[in-house]
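Thread title: Can someone regenerate the structure for this chain?

I was given the following input by a collaborator and told the matching structure tokens would be attached. They weren't. Posting the sequence so someone can regenerate them.
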Amino acid sequence: MASFISRLLAIHLLLQLVSPLSYADEENGPPAEKKAEDLPEKAPDPSEFRTFTSARGNKTLQLKVVARIDDETYKVQNPEGRIFNIKTSNLSRSDQLFLDFWEPNAILNLKQAKLPDVLDQMGYSVLEMTVVESTFFVTATVDGKTGKFLLDPSRGWSTFDPAAAKEIGMTLTQGRINFTDNTGKSSRSQRGAVKEFKAGMVSVNSHEFEVIEVAKMFRAVPANTIGAIGGDMLKKLNALVDFGGKRLFVRANQ
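Best answer:
Regenerated them for you:
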């Protein structure tokens, strides 16, 4: 019994000696991580800076545009990180034009930028095109009716199918186009205006179409093809065609 009590006393004494060390470890905790302010700052990207020239042409500065305060004042940053305002009247004409077109998060390095990203910065939206026997098609909506339109940039006018014209209640008059269809028969178009032609995010109002049966003008026309987009409509859409990527870029008038 005495031996057992002696062991308990020895264990109790050992715990008293070890416990302070354990508490000290818990209080100190794990080694502190390096504070964010102690970490080295990321070096500025040289491509974000532009060489600005004074109006007199005798001074230059490397600056990054941060924000537009108003049409004549911009907030800029130099490579050392200092931020201040500049007036366009103190800059060269070239720099003034640059600032006129500057937008936040704009793509400045065009050598590395991808075409869709550049056009997106310019306000374009993209429509995917399908191809049938080397003819390109996009989907558009005319006065609530959605269908396929083939791209016909070689003609200065756009085409709408008579059946679709009847469905949307288009008022028709005599057209101006005489044509010979695929069967060798000569015909004259009718003409009518739509209230709204919508391609992607872009709408064109009050546009006139030559109303001709599309299948008689073009070969290999897929089902639900209701018209053709000619040069007149492509111009109103501010269209850019990427035939290789099968994409049509359109933009509303500014």
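Confidence is low (pLDDT under 50) at residues 1-40.
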